[in-house]
Amino acid sequence: MxxxxxxxxxxxxxxxxxxxxxxxxxxxxxxxxxxxxxxxxLLGKRFSAYMNKxxxxxxxxxxxxxxxxxxxxFHLGACTKTTEQDAEYLIDNNFNYSIELANFALxxxxxxxYASSAATYGDGSEGYSDSKFDVLTPLNCYGFSKHxxxxxxxxxxxxxxxxxxxxxxxxxxxxxxxxxxxxxxFKAFKQVNDKDEISLFKSSSPxxxxxxxxxxxxxxxxxxxxxxxxxxDDKAGIFNLGTGTARSWNDLANSVFKAFDKTPKIxxxxxxxxxxxxxxxYTCADMTKFSKVYPDYTFxxxxxxxxxxxxxxxxxxxxxI
Length: 321
Description:
Blueprint: E1 2-5, H1 10-21, E2 27-31, E3 49-52, H2 53-62, E4 72-75, H3 87-107, E5 111-117, H4 141-155, E6 163-167, E7 169-171, H5 184-195, E8 198-201, E9 214-215, E10 217-219, H6 220-232, E11 237-241, E12 247-248, H7 249-260, E13 266-269, H8 273-276, H9 288-293, H10 302-314
Parallel strand pairs: 1-2, 1-4, 2-3, 4-5, 5-6, 6-11, 7-10, 8-13
Antiparallel strand pairs: 9-12
């Protein structure tokens, strides 16, 4: 059995589909479906059981033998809202919960792969190397909660056994339920459909022009492919998972217009004051460590990723992987 937390979420459900493609369906999906549309990400997927996250945490303590025969835990469940203000909730959900699962994996000798985040790098002043940790200062509590778990893993030398992945700007199918936290590709698609233009934030930094702020965008199909490789090759460590190439918001917007075969029209709007102090103007994954493991791995370009996402999913009645 494989335990997949966050299995109905964006990346989790795409990984679930990938596991199914590999012929694996003895999977316990753990999530909190709530009242939204996230449940639709489970349509067409094969899994042996579903359990609510709160009940799973309870049973992990009360009846650990129920899960002790699992061969792997893919821990992708977390609150990923960078604007979440409830620090107690974030620390419990993203840090304490992760420790509970990690300790369980250690006791039962279960492979443990977990999601970290590029939000741990803060404003990027210390760079984006997955070999630097103590000096990092996240800009929001979400990033802090992820950073705490990375530090816990390193303090106990569990990076020799576990696999952590610092996701950069992931986009693609199955993110439809994420509302305000959905990718800019998703939002831009809707904007072009509605009014033939895309709105981007004006720059709040003299170093970047409007729309010139940069991100390391990575397609979810590449993400799940890498997760599968690291799992099957039994590679341990904390790795960045971006493409290693920073692209601007203007590049992204132009890729969306190209997928529509329309002339670009970009409207630059003021950035909300509350975002300015925690806004990352530039992110780019240092992929040195990853490249030593997979020197020939090629990530899908932003243009090709956006074209695939819009043509085969967003324009196809928001179809899911």
